[in-house]
Each structure stands twice: as structure tokens, then as C-alpha cells.
């Protein structure tokens, strides 16, 4: 089947039900998208399918055929996506393992809601970070949006 | 299947040190310098390569300063902060500094010339600061000596600043690179004077972490990401009941599935492995195999039987007394005006780092290669060598970032050995990547020990604590994880926080009773300090309440001789505005601890609604780590500690049913998410003069401060975790 990943067409010969995550990682050798839970709980495997954040660990690859797949490797149009720049500015990552997924989720959120409230962030950013970088994720998103955290959460 | 290269296809091949030197030599010679302890080992490392002067610092002719980093990076930040120590004494230009890992194989061949590689116990900075700073200062002295020789001026007139060596009187100056070759020929000074902290220019600065850029564009390579030509993949099922074995399995249908290479048991039948051309295929096939397990007689152990066993430990007459016991507690309690007694319980917990366990091993004629996320690269070499029956020096452990460690990846583990045993079953030179599922990780951890605490204390008529008794029943990491004997029956980690109370109590009687079960235990971030303060710092609150006194005032009144404990408590209280009453319906709790050579205190401010919904308004954390190397990184570590403490408080438990772990994945082993993350204010209150840890201490006071605030709000003393069992939730 044919997959359109980061504006490139890839021909892959795999089972229809193989999750997109494993096609990306082990067939296409794109390791930026991470495996952590395998049951769509943690979001480490988040990619964009036609612009929407999707947890690729439970998405059969056949469901991604004919769609536009964007991974962390293809997020930036230039050298660095603004979300990635903000992540560096705020020194967000600790171990960094969940951050591909966090960044993909944040990029999608800001695309849809350029000035998200804390409630918007809470709803969209359900990815787990075991290191506990949440305070900086929130700060980085507010910085990108040019908004201040609300008093209640601030 | 064979490969011509050991370089992962997705890792830019880094030049080996020898290649680097050759490259340097081609453009005029390089300079390598460094120190470890003891000096004899350093000389052995130097002798391994006649062009090497020393081991921590290399200077290339283009002024690049390469600083070696021996420990692991798993998010704690010392890949950046440890080299800050070297660079500061070197007076290097930080922008010219490149950080590279120490070669594990060379380390082993030179009798561990780079000292301790284990990244545990919040000790990377405090355990290596002296030899790292000395390495920088020595390199600086040799550059000065080289400049003095080249310029014909006295060394005492030469200054070094920001990567420039200069002589003001003659106007001569030079970058490090032009002096490197000559510096390498200078005698190594017998001793150097380290800077006074007031002279530090890089230590104490929040320089950005060097590993972060790769973590935001997907290029960071973790153990799980290694990709090698001809690599095959292994999925593993370990005995659900700890200590059990594969009794029987039927893999006939699995073997015929697409991509399946082999199915076999490893490690004395403790696990079944499927090897395939793709990990997902291996896992699918493994899931379809019916396995019969021999439960080794542990299939009846459950939470209830464990509790009974641990509670009996609290009553044991032969519990080991701690060395700080003093006076006569029995008499003191007899004469007390009030006697307070309470029991506390903390459950097993899983580390659950985001990157699951796994390792890639390739056994070749020239040696064995290992790629894995670890906190102890040299221990992995020993583990793999042990599994294969070869010398550790024949094992090369490649350094990668760890997707979280938190104690799960420290010391000799399990997955490295398993990957080696799988590789041993495959044709020579076949790289195999073993990867655990999240479920395997949750159900086959080295768990934070279950522990029970019984505390009893008496107050006199003036509300002074006259006697304090502690009984601790818990697993022993020293005995059960390290395999070392227990001195006088005491496990140092299980008794942390009770071996030196910060409170003045004349009569003390503390004792520890080891409880060994079939459940594997390990070093969970903050270790004993993640659980003993839950008892100690709530109990002191109980005493304050019995005395009718403010919890802060009661603590301060009892800690007159503990200046740093008092200062950190006051720092947290001041930031939280403790002496100003909170808004109506808002309550506060406070706690203090002395973990890992640092002092930490916390104040939690919250309100609780009628249905048990907890709203945390603010958390204040204060730390005195003596010196601070990278302030922003310390803040990050303490922010992260909040997630650990609150996850453990609200939901954290590993339950044992029929000898096995009940929880499986993040849906039933809940961790805090961003919507539940409260506002955290971190106060850095360094008093100087010592080097304390920062990775783990933040968590220690949070749990009791949180529970003390809940008591203030609800009148309920919360002596058992997790709290969701008692109807609480975060809102």
C-alpha cells in the first residue's frame, strides 16, 4: 500500500492491521514517533493525519492510506516549527521521550485554537509525561499564543 | 546474516577518540586532559593510548573543548551540568564546549578510570564535583604553562577567561586550540587551587541543556530507536507470577505466521520469546501462543497475605534497633501527659518510565555490542558478559539517552541479560532488539517496597516531645536488590528519615524489620525518602495537633539545633505566606526533609469540596542543595517531583493478586496529567558550603505536606495510600 508521510510517498508491504506506529518506526525507520503504552493512553505516538492528532499505536495502517501523515520529523516547514522553538526556549523536555507526541498535540491545538485557554490546553494535551514537564508545556503554549495563564491555574 | 558495520544506521557515527586525535593531529595536534580517582587508574587509561595526556578534557586546534561525561542522561540534566563544573574551572568559552560520553569499553579496560558511571542516588554532581572541577583547573594550569613557555612571560601574569589565554603586559593572547599541542607536553601540576564560589562564571548559570534540541525534532536516539542492518526483533512474555517458569507452550501456529523467525524460552525458562523480522509481528505471534506457567508456589500471595506478613513485622521482637536510639522511651511514654500512636501504609509502586524496557545486542567474533537505555552503562556490560560467560571488557555498551530511568534502569537489570540470551540463540552477528510491552513493564518491575510504619510518641505538660518510638516493616533494597549483607540488620534506605530526626527528642527507640517476599523491589525515585516522610512528617503534624499548636511553630520549636532544616522550613513558609491566614475554605500543610545531602520543604495549599474533590491552589517547594550548578534545571527537577508525589498520593499502587501484579498499563496505573498539574513555585535557597543532590529530594516533603493540608481541610488523617480509595479525587 502507499503512504504519504511528510510529503513523501512510501510503498509498504505490510499487514492491513499493523498499527501505523510500527510501520513508521520499523518499516520506514522513522524513530521520532514513540511507543510507550500501545493502547492510546499516553500519546507518545501522536502523529497528524490530515492535520488531526491521532494516536498511531492503535491506528491500523490501512486507515491511513490516502491521507496526509505528518510526523515529528516532518512537522517543521523550515528548520524548526514554532512549537519546537518554544519547547527549547522554555527548556521543556527532561528525558524527552514523550515530547514528540506532546509537540504534535500542541501544534495541532494551536492550529485550531491560536489562543487556547487553560481549559483548552487541559482538554487537548492529555499526553502523559512521567518526568513531569507539564508546567513548562503550559508555559510554552501560552507563550506561543501570546496569552497569560489564567489566575486559577497560574 | 552479517553486517559490516556496528554503527546504527540512524546514529551519526561519532569519531572514536583515537579517530578524533588523528584528525586533530592532521591539523596540528590536540590536547586531552582529565582526572579521575585514583591517579593510578588514570595513568592506566593514559597508557592505553600514548597520545593521551589525560581523560576528561580534550582541546582541538579549532578551539573546540570536548568534555567527557561518564554517567547517563535520562532527563535529570547532568549531561549538561556536570560538564559545567569542568568548563568553569577551565575558564572555557561555554559555546566552544562539546560534550561527549565516555567510552564504556575503554572505561572497563582501564579499571574504571572515569570513576563511577552509575547514575543513581542524586549523586552525579555531589559524587564527582571534586574530580571534575580538578580536571578543569588542571587543564587550565597546563594551558597557562604552555602560554608562558611560548610567550616567554611568567605564568603568574597570565589570565584565562572565556576561552582566551592572555598576557596583559605584552598584549599577547590566544584561544585554547593554538596552545593545545604545547599544553599537552607540560607537566601535570601536582595540585591545583579550585575557585572560590564567588569566582564561578559557568557554575550557577542556567545554561540551556545540551540534549534538549534533539528531543524536540525527533532525532534523539533512545535505546528503543537503535536501527542496525539485518536487525531482528524479539517480544517477550515473562512469568506472570514472579519466580515462575514456562511449563509448556504451543507455538505451532505462531511459527508459520509472516516474519516469524523462532520461538524459544530463555533464562532457565523464566520467559518465552518470539523473534521476528518486525517487533509487531513478534508480539502478535506471542499473544497467540498459549503458555502454561509453573507458578513456583507463589500463586496464592495477595495483598491481604502481604499485609499480614508486614504487620507481623511491626510486632517482631527481633527488629533491628537503629544506631540513633537514645534514652528510655518506655519510661518517657509512661510519664507523658499525652501519648499518640499511629500506623502508616505505603504500597508497592511501579516506575513506569515512558520508554519501555529493552536492549539491542549483537554478538560478533570481535566482541559483543549492546545498545540500551540504562542508568549504569558499566553494569550493563557486566550483566551481558555474565549472561554470555565472557569478560565485561569484551562487551561494548553504546551510549544513548534513556527515556526516563527513575531507578528502574539502575544497576544490573533484567532486559540486558535477556537480550544477550536471545542474541546467543541467533546466528553470529545478528543484531536483535528485545522490547518489552508496557504491560510487561508494569507487571515485571522492581517496585518501590511496600512499607508499614508504626509510630508512638509522648508529649509532656509543656507539649515537648519526650519520647518517640518507630517500627518499620519493609523490604530491604540492600539485601534483596543489591544482594549485600545488612549491617546489624538495618537497611539504610528503608530507614531514611528516622536515622537522624531533625527534631529534638531525648528518648528515641527506632527499629527496622526486614520483610522479604517474592515481589521484586527496587530503587524508585527518592527511594526511602519517597515514603518514610509520609509517616514521619504526618506524625509530627499529629503531635502538633495534639499539642494544639501551629504545625510550623511546633516543628521549629523542636529543631533548634538543626539550622539548615530550620532555614529551609522557614524559606518554604515565607514563600507560602504561612503566617497570613489563607482565604476562607483554603487550607495548608507543611513538611520538611533532609534527603540526598540536601534540605527540602514544601507547603501545599488546597481546598476540598463536599464530594472529596481536591483543588490544589498552590504548591511551594524549597530546596537548599548547598551549591547550585544549573538553577533552571533544579527548578525543572522539583516541578517534575510534583508529578511523582501527586501520582503516588492519589492513585499509585501495585496490587498483588494470585501472586501477580493486577495493574497492566496507564489506564489502571494512573499518572498525573497536565489538567491535574497544580501551580508550583520553586524556591532555591542555597546556603553554600556543600553539594547536595537535586534529582530526588524534591519529592520527599510533598506527600506529607499534601496529606497534612488534607487533614487541615477535612480533619481526616490519611495514613494509607493511595487516596482515591478514600473517596478523594483531583479537580
Describe this protein's structure.
The complex is a heterodimer of chains A (154) and B (731). Chain A has 154 residues and is an alpha+beta fold. In chain A, strands 2-1-5-3-4 form a five-stranded mixed beta sheet, with helices on one face. In chain A, strand 1 and strand 2 form a beta hairpin. In chain A, helix 2 crosses helix 5. Chain A is globular and about 50 Å long. The termini of chain A are far apart. The model of chain A has no long low-confidence stretch (mean pLDDT 95). Chain B has 20 helices and 28 strands. Chain B has a seven-stranded mixed beta sheet with strand order 10-11-8-18-15-16-17. In chain B, strands 13-21-20-19-14 form a five-stranded mixed beta sheet, sandwiched between helices. The longest helix of chain B is centred in the N-terminal third of the chain and has 28 residues. Chain B is globular. Chain B starts with 16 loop residues before the first helix and ends with a strand. The chains are: A alpha+beta (154), B alpha+beta (731).
Amino acid at each position: 500500500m502507499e503512504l504519504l508521510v511528510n510529503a513523501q510517498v512510501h510503498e509498504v508491504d505490510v499487514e492491513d492491521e499493523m498499527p501505523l506506529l510500527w510501520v513508521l518506526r520499523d518499516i520506514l525507520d522513522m524513530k521520532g514517533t514513540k511507543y510507550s503504552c500501545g493502547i492510546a493512553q499516553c500519546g507518545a505516538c501522536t502523529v497528524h493525519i490530515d492535520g488531526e492528532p491521532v494516536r498511531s499505536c492503535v491506528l491500523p495502517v490501512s486507515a491511513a492510506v490516502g491521507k496526509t501523515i505528518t510526523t515529528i520529523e516532518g512537522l517543521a516547514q523550515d528548520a524548526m516549527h514554532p512549537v519546537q522553538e518554544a519547547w527549547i526556549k522554555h527548556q521543556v523536555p527532561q528525558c524527552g521521550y514523550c515530547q514528540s507526541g506532546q509537540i504534535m498535540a500542541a501544534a495541532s491545538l494551536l492550529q485550531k485554537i491560536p489562543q487556547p485557554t487553560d481549559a483548552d490546553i487541559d482538554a487537548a494535551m492529555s499526553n502523559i509525561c512521567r518526568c513531569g514537564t507539564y508546567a513548562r508545556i503550559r508555559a510554552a503554549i501560552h507563550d506561543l499564543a501570546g496569552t497569560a495563564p489564567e489566575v486559577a491555574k497560574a | 546474516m552479517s553486517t559490516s558495520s556496528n554503527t546504527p544506521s540512524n546514529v551519526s557515527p561519532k569519531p572514536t577518540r583515537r579517530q578524533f586525535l588523528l584528525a586533530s593531529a592532521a591539523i596540528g595536534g590536540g590536547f586531552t586532559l582529565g582526572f579521575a580517582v585514583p591517579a593510578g587508574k588514570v595513568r592506566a587509561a593514559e597508557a592505553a593510548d600514548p597520545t593521551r595526556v589525560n581523560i576528561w578534557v580534550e582541546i582541538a586546534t579549532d578551539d573546540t573543548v570536548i568534555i567527557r561525561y561518564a554517567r547517563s542522561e535520562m532527563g535529570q540534566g547532568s549531561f549538561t551540568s556536570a560538564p559545567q563544573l569542568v568548563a568553569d574551572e577551565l575558564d572555557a568559552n561555554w559555546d566552544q564546549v562539546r560534550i561527549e560520553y565516555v567510552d564504556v569499553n575503554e572505561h572497563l579496560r582501564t579499571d574504571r578510570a572515569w570513576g563511577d558511571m552509575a547514575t543513581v542516588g542524586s549523586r552525579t554532581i555531589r559524587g564527582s564535583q571534586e574530580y571534575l572541577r580538578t580536571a578543569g583547573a588542571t587543564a587550565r594550569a597546563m594551558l597557562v604553562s604552555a602560554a608562558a613557555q611560548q610567550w616567554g612571560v611568567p605564568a603568574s601574569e597570565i589570565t584565562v577567561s572565556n576561552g582566551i589565554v592572555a598576557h596583559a603586559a605584552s598584549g599577547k593572547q590566544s584561544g585554547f586550540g593554538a596552545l593545545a599541542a604545547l599544553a599537552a607536553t607540560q607537566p601535570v601540576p601536582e595540585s591545583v587551587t579550585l575557585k572560590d564560589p564567588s569566582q564561578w562564571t559557568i557554575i550557577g548559570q542556567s545554561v540551556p541543556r545540551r540534549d534538549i534540541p534533539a528531543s524536540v525534532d525527533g532525532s534523539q536516539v533512545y535505546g528503543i530507536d537503535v536501527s542496525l542492518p539485518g536487525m531482528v526483533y524479539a517480544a517477550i512474555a515473562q512469568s506472570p507470577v514472579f519466580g515462575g517458569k514456562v511449563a509448556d507452550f504451543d507455538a505451532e501456529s505462531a511459527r508459520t505466521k509472516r516474519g516469524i523467525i523462532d520461538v524459544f524460552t530463555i533464562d532457565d525458562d523464566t520467559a518465552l520469546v518470539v523473534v521476528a523480522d518486525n517487533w509487531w509481528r513478534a508480539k502478535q505471534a506471542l499473544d497467540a501462543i498459549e503458555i502454561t506457567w509453573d507458578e513456583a508456589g507463589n500463586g496464592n500471595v495477595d495483598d491481604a497475605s502481604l499485609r499480614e506478613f508486614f504487620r507481623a513485622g511491626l510486632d517482631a521482637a527481633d527488629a533491628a534497633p537503629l544506631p540513633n536510639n537514645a534514652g528510655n522511651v518506655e519510661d518517657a511514654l509512661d510519664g507523658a501527659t499525652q501519648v499518640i500512636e499511629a500506623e502508616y501504609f505505603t504500597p508497592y509502586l511501579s516506575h513506569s518510565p515512558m520508554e519501555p524496557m529493552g536492549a539491542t545486542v549483537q554478538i560478533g567474533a570481535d566482541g559483543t555490542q549492546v545498545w540500551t537505555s540504562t542508568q549504569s552503562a558499566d553494569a550493563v556490560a557486566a550483566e551481558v558478559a555474565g549472561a554470555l560467560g565472557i569478560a565485561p571488557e569484551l562487551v561494548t555498551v553504546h551510549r544513548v539517552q534513556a527515556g526516563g530511568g527513575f531507578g528502574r534502569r539502575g544497576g544490573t537489570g533484567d532486559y540486558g541479560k535477556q537480550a544477550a540470551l536471545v542474541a546467543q540463540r541467533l546466528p553470529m552477528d545478528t543484531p536483535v532488539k528485545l522490547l518489552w510491552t508496557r504491560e510487561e513493564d508494569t507487571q515485571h518491575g522492581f517496585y518501590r517496597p511496600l512499607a508499614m510504619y508504626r509510630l508512638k510518641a509522648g508529649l509532656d505538660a509543656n507539649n515537648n516531645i519526650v519520647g518517640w518510638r518507630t517500627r518499620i516493616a519493609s523490604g530491604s533494597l540492600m539485601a534483596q536488590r543489591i544482594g549485600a549483607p545488612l549491617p546489624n540488620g538495618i537497611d539504610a534506605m528503608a530507614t531514611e528519615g528516622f536515622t537522624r530526626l531533625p527534631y529534638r527528642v531525648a528518648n528515641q527507640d527506632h527499629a527496622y524489620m526486614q520483610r522479604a517476599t517474592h515481589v521484586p523491589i527496587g530503587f524508585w525515585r527518592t527511594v526511602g525518602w519517597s515514603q518514610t516522610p509520609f509517616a514521619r512528617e504526618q506524625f509530627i503534624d499529629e503531635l502538633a495537633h495534639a499539642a494544639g499548636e501551629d504545625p510550623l511553630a511546633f516543628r521549629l520549636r523542636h529543631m533548634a539545633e538543626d539550622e539548615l532544616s530550620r532555614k529551609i522550613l522557614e524559606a518554604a513558609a515565607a514563600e507560602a505566606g504561612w503566617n497570613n491566614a489563607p482565604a476562607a475554605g483554603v487550607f495548608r500543610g507543611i513538611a520538611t526533609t533532609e534527603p540526598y545531602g540536601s534540605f527540602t520543604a514544601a507547603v501545599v495549599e488546597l481546598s476540598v469540596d463536599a464530594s472529596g474533590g481536591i483543588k490544589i491552589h498552590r504548591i511551594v517547594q524549597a530546596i537548599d542543595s548547598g551549591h547550585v550548578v544549573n538553577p533552571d534545571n533544579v527548578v525543572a527537577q522539583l516541578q517534575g517531583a510534583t508529578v511523582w508525589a501527586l501520582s503516588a498520593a492519589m492513585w499509585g499502587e501495585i496490587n498483588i493478586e494470585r501472586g501477580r501484579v493486577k495493574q497492566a498499563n496507564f489506564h489502571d496505573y494512573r499518572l498525573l496529567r497536565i489538567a491535574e498539574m497544580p501551580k508550583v513555585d520553586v524556591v532555591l535557597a542555597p546556603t553554600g558550603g556543600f553539594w547536595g543532590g537535586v534529582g530526588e529530594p524534591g519529592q520527599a516533603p510533598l506527600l506529607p505536606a499534601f496529606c497534612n493540608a488534607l487533614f487541615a481541610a477535612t480533619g481526616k488523617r490519611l495514613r494509607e495510600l493511595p487516596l482515591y480509595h478514600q473517596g478523594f479525587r483531583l479537580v
